[in-house]
Amino acid sequence: MERLIRGYREFRKKRWPQERANYLELADKGQKPEYLLIACSDSRSDPATIFNARPGEFFVVRNVAAAVPPHSADHGLFGTRAAIAYAVIALKVRNIVVMGHAQCGGVAAALNPETAAGIPFVNEWVSLLAPAVDKVRAHTHGDDEATNAERETVKLSVSRLLEYPFIAERMAAGTLKVDGARFGIADGILELLDQKTGEFEPVKVRNGWFS
Ligand SMILES: [Zn+2]
Three-state SS across the chain? Predict the structure, then answer.
């Protein structure tokens, strides 16, 4: 706990004074986040850091590989679906963003189950990624395999979200958007999914450069 206590003290010293009024308002009026972020549990892919968020801005679901179970899955897996339903129906978020990332261990396990051999639950969970993995296996080889599987996993999660009736209804009404992205750990590049082409395009940062 020492590291956490140190971090908390730092937070109270520096950030709390800046955010105090914001926290008070959030406590008084409740949260009203406009974004639901679905990201990987990986310690390097924290949406609040990458998107420079303030408290109250994002409702976040993190799980291994940023996976979205099919709406109709009849076994377990309720944690992620409960968070999605709460964010959309109760909090009325206006955007859902699925963010995958480079060097994703969950996607690696979906590609090669032996990487998670002996670890309970992981291979069962990442079996959700099977349609993405199958697609990649049919089309790519070697080094591109992991990157393509990470991108296909984001596309799969996005396409599954579109099958949730309460999401489809709100998209049709124009009150909700769903997007996909992938964050590059080593280069810091965020690429966005173009849902028309199925391709990922890097976000320009300044003067046309990506970093
Ligand atoms: Zn990951």
Answer: CHHHHHHHHHHHHHHHHHHHHHHHHHHHHCCCCCEEEEEECCCCCCHHHHCCCCCCCEEEEEEHHHCCCCCCCCCCCHHHHHHHHHHHHHCCCCEEEEEEECCCHHHHHHHCHHHHCCCCCHHHHHHHHHHHHHHHHHHCCCCHHHHHHHHHHHHHHHHHHCCCHHHHHHHHCCCCEEEEEEECCCCCCEEEEECCCCEEEECCCECCECC
Set out the domains of the chain in order of their start, with CATH numbers: 1-29 (no CATH), 31-202 (3.40.1050.10)
In tens, the pLDDT along 20-32 reads 999 999 999 999 9
Mean pLDDT, the chain, rounded, equals 94
Expressed in angstroms and rounded, the spacing between residue 17 Cα and the centre of ligand 1 is 33
Q: How far is the CA of 20 from the centre of ligand 1 (A)?
A: 33
CA of 127 to the centre of ligand 1 (A): 14
Distance 163 CA to ligand 1 centre (A): 23
User: How far does the centroid of ligand 1 lie from the alpha carbon of residue 39, in Å?
Assistant: 8
Taking residues 177-193, report their average pLDDT: 97
* Residue 41 Cα to ligand 1 middle (Å): 6
pTM: 0.94
Q: What is the distance in A from the centroid of ligand 1 to the CA of 102?
A: 7
Q: Is the pLDDT of residue 187 over 90?
A: yes
